[in-house]
Design brief:
The chain is α+β, with helices and mostly antiparallel strands and 391 residues long. It has three domains: 178 residues, Alpha-Beta Plaits (2-Layer Sandwich), CATH 3.30.70.270; 64 residues, MutS, DNA mismatch repair protein, domain I (3-Layer(aba) Sandwich), CATH 3.40.1170.60; 111 residues, Dna Ligase, domain 1 (2-Layer Sandwich), CATH 3.30.1490. It contains 13 helices and 14 strands. The strands form four sheets. It has a five-stranded mixed beta sheet with strand order 7-8-3-9-10. A four-stranded antiparallel beta sheet has the order 11-14-12-13, covered by helices on one side. The chain has a three-stranded mixed beta sheet with strand order 5-4-6. Helix 4 runs antiparallel to helix 5, helix 10 crosses helix 11 and helix 12 packs antiparallel against helix 13. It is globular. It starts with 23 loop residues before the first strand and ends in a 17-residue tail after the last strand.
């Protein structure tokens, strides 16, 4: 186990200063880089906040948007009042109810969320065309050169947060930095309605203090592997050599090596392309009958085929997703040179892929089909942003 650094920093105390206006700056490792000004805007408990805004009776109360407490659904998001009980997104609605029986469960209103998201997107466009939506409730903005010729990125972020509140009645949080990784992490430091700036000079201290679970790309499994090796924070990660990280984490090793040093050269991409088209469904009851599973997959195949054909495309890879009754998820994929675009082909492949899982002997609670490696470029349009993580 490595010795932990005794010189700790408080990430929440990082100064919220404006950027200096240099043409070039230096990364924590001394590499010269073109100074960029990136903002990550993240709406606060977005779906629940819209519900509380539109229904005064929900204000100040624990609100859960997602499946009903007696259903097999999951929590899409919840209000901050509900989060105090330990509820979080992707938690089963049954467990959320156990944690907070007095919570108010609300079914999602897709059109309402889409309308607000588009309103916010139009606001972003008033400042820059370099807007990269990540979902309905968050986006990256590159304001290095902005339409209002505002010198400081911090001022841009403050104006945007104020305008969001004034125009929608909702709050958002923002992170400002010289790259996407730091901006995204910073936006979560002072939620809700917070603004945190990490300048190049502050990056080393900010990263050193970050718990390893806060690093994008570190899930529960990777976090456990890192903790076993004494990697609990950014400063621990920075002590690891590139060779060591590549040996432990394969192709992700270089990514971890770089972000531990504040290096992230990804640009804000305003017109991202869809990488896949898919659908999944959570079953009302656990299913151990493969015949019934095939009926469900048949319906999913028809829905996915309609979407694929509607975009006038096809895909070379079909992926089956299976979630067992203990919440373990597995995927099985098939890739071919001939494009996959019809329901019949998808269903035949899905049957073969299902045979490669433990479905049947192990009951199943969720099934999904996804077509990827698309044969044509499809922009991530407004409708694509509406795919929400619940049935």
């Amino acid at each position: 186990m490595r010795d932990r650094c005794s010189n700790r920093y408080n990430a929440a105390s990082i100064c919220r200063h404006s950027f200096s206006c240099y043409e070039d700056s230096f990364s924590p490792t001394g590499h010269t880089l073109k100074q960029r000004k990136i903002i990550h805007v993240d709406m606060d408990a977005f779906y629940a906040a819209v519900e509380q805004r539109d229904n005064q009776q929900l204000r100040g109360k624990p609100v859960i948007v997602g499946g009903e407490p007696g259903s097999r659904g999951v929590v899409a998001t919840c209000s901050y009042e509900a989060r105090r009980f330990g509820i979080h997104s992707a938690m089963s609605s049954v467990r959320a109810y156990r944690l907070c029986p007095q919570a108010i469960f609300v079914r999602p209103r897709f059109e309402a969320y889409r309308a607000v998201s588009l309103q916010i997107r139009e606001l972003f466009q008033e400042y820059t065309d370099l807007v990269e939506p990540l979902s309905l409730d968050e986006a990256f903005l590159d304001v290095t050169e902005n339409k209002k010729n505002i010198k400081f990125a911090t001022r841009v972020a403050r104006e945007i947060l104020t305008e969001i509140r004034d125009r929608t009645g909702l709050t958002a949080s923002a992170g400002v930095s010289y790259n996407k990784f730091l901006a995204k992490v910073a936006s979560d430091v002072k939620k809700p309605a917070g603004l945190t700036v990490v300048t190049p000079e502050q990056a080393e201290a900010f990263i050193a203090e970050l718990p390893i679970r806060r690093f994008h790309g570190v899930g529960r499994v990777t976090e456990k592997r890192m903790l076993v090796r004494g990697i609990a924070s950014g400063i621990d990660l920075r002590r690891c050599s590139l060779e060591e990280l590549q040996r432990l984490f394969g192709s992700s090793g270089e990514y971890f090596y770089n972000i531990a040093r504040g290096i992230d050269n990804r640009v804000v991409v305003p017109n991202r392309l869809r990488k896949s088209i898919g659908k999944e469904t959570t079953l009302e009851e656990d299913c151990a009958d493969k015949g019934e599973m095939m009926l469900i997959l048949g319906k999913l195949a028809e829905r996915v085929a309609n979407l694929v054909q509607g975009h006038d495309t096809g895909g070379q890879t079909l992926t089956l997703k299976v979630r067992y009754d203990d919440f373990q998820s597995v995927t099985r994929s098939h890739t071919q040179t001939e494009p996959i675009d019809d329901a019949e082909t998808m269903l035949l492949l899905a049957e073969a892929l299902l045979a490669r899982t433990e479905a049947g002997p192990r009951p199943v609670r969720l099934l999904g089909l996804t077509v990827s490696n698309l044969t044509t470029d499809i922009p991530l349009d407004k409708s694509a942003q509406m795919e929400l993580p619940f049935p």
